[in-house]
Amino acid sequence: MSAGRLLSLLLLLQSRGRMSARGVADELGVSVRTAYRDLARLQAAGVPVYAEPGRGGGYQLLDGYRTRLTGMSEGEARALFFAGLPGPAADLGLAAEVTAARLKLLAALPTGLREEAARTAAVFHLDAPGWYREPEQTPQLPLFVDAVLTGRAVDVRYRRWRAPQEVNRRLRPYGLVLKSGTWYLVAAATDSRIATYRVAQVLDAVLSDERFDRPQGFDLGAYWTSYLDDFQARRYTGTATIRLSPQGRRRLPDNVPPEVVRAVDSTATAVGDDGWVEAVIPTESTYHACGELLRLGVDVEVVAPAELRQAMVATVGVLARAYGLH
């Protein structure tokens, strides 16, 4: 039973008035049977929900009943979205607001729902950063939150990968995205081109006096999906044929990106009777692929292209000499 779904049901009845069980089920994306069960749980929790039978009947709250979600500041209302994400909320400078908003929300709930919400919170925890790396430092993040919400341009000094590495930009922030523990700013530059900036690479940032309107119809989620598709298309510019031992295939997900794992799964064919397989994988560059595949040690062999195979041989040769084997 989802406490969040019961709260959604309560707010749905409060905002819509009388609703049929079918209407509730359609709105919440559950079965009609589940909708009946949720309505019964809401009643058992002390919420005055009553049913009116017959054609045109349905479920509704007792006249005058309202939830007591009051007393929240603007910052606390913003922070509600991050109530289950304490780490990202702290990054955004909203840790105190999240705590206050959660307490006020819980205090406004009937006893049954409050206990259900507490049980749910006790068994879920989000830790966004990936393994084997320290969380990135993003001291400019709260400033970007302010800029996004107030529609103010920001002057930044940004460190990028290509020369010149440090550049100055005036950006109009449209939104922030958290991807695998890394924060990204989606913003338009002075030429109106929308681009993505890694927040940890921002060296300095100052709010400007310039105000701007976010373009009508801009969808942050749709932009990010399109950006990821384009990134993958630009990222992988070649292919390689490799052979993997059974152990190498088991180790693959811990050492290469998911796209490479999927490529192996879809193209693998057996070579011999010892469990080795041959597959075609996407590659970014010879240098990058060499470093990535060397993590698998003796459990991988590069068949093609020749330059990648030669790079593997050269690297292994350097290692051998470093350890006094030649």
Automatic annotation (TrEMBL):
Pfam families: HTH_11, WCX, WYL. PROSITE patterns: WYL (PS52050). Residues 144-205 form the WYL domain. InterPro entries: CBASS_pafABC_assoc_protein, HTH_11, PafC-like, WCX_dom, WH-like_DNA-bd_sf, WH_DNA-bd_sf, WYL_dom. Residues 5-60 form the Helix-turn-helix type domain. Residues 238-316 form the WCX domain. PANTHER family: PROTEIN PAFC, PTHR34580. This is Helix-turn-helix transcriptional regulator. It comes from Streptomyces milbemycinicus.
